[in-house]
Each structure stands twice: as structure tokens, then as C-alpha cells.
Amino acid sequence: MTAPKKAPGKLKIAVDETVQKLNQEVASRGIRATNALRNAELEVLRGQRSGRVYRKPHSKARYTASAPGEPPARRTGMLRMNWNGTVESASSGSGIRVSAVLESQEKYSVYLENGTRHMAARPFQQEIVDKAAPEIKRIYSEKYE
């Protein structure tokens, strides 16, 4: 004969509910931080640049490229529009770690960021992080309820 299972105590239920609310709040803040990165990315990758002026392929229109050291200029808009934002979380014995991640889906973004032997770098990633950092710090500094 087995002993009947005990129902969880009210304290355990209250703790479990509180932990669940906190986990939801942390995940929500991760999404908001990812959105802050995305907004910063849109801001960094817009505007005029000061490089050479080129003719757009198959068009009479012209555009100004970025100079070495500037964020890339927008020609097609593909770099600016193809980003994947995610929230990564990992639990450990002492808590949960949440990371807001924004990754470009364009293969050439790494070449723009780091340059190649034929082209000087057009770094933009650190500028995105620097622009988003104050908003992300504010998001994670809010009081938990």
C-alpha cells in the first residue's frame, strides 16, 4: 500500500507563481531589449554617407557610398531590413541569464563590418550596441513587480 500524495503547501504554490511571474517579466524585458537593438540598427544604417558617388546598377539613379570607417550606405536596403532578433535564456543554479540578440541575415554583413582585402571596413555593430545600451540598461533597471 502506498502513502497518499500530499498536496503542495500554499507557500510552495505562492513561490512557484512568483517565480513564474519573474520569468515572464525577464523574458518580456529581453524582447524589449531586442527591440531597442533593432531600433538602434535602423537608426545607424540610415542617412547620408560621405563616400564616392556611384550609379545604381541598371538605373540612372545615383547613390553616395560610405567612406571607410562609416556605417554602410543603403543601396538596396537588404542589410537594413534583414535582421533576426531573438531572446536567449539559460538557467543555472543561481538564476537565469537572458541575452537580447540581433543578427543580420545578410551574408555580406561580416564583410562590411570587418572589411576585405579589396575594401576597408564599414563597422556598424558597435555603434548599434552603443546607441541601444542606455535604453537596454533602463529596461533592465526597472523595478520588478
TrEMBL record:
<protein>
    <recommendedName>
        <fullName>HK97 gp10 family phage protein</fullName>
    </recommendedName>
</protein>
<feature type="region of interest" description="Disordered">
    <location>
        <begin position="55"/>
        <end position="76"/>
    </location>
</feature>
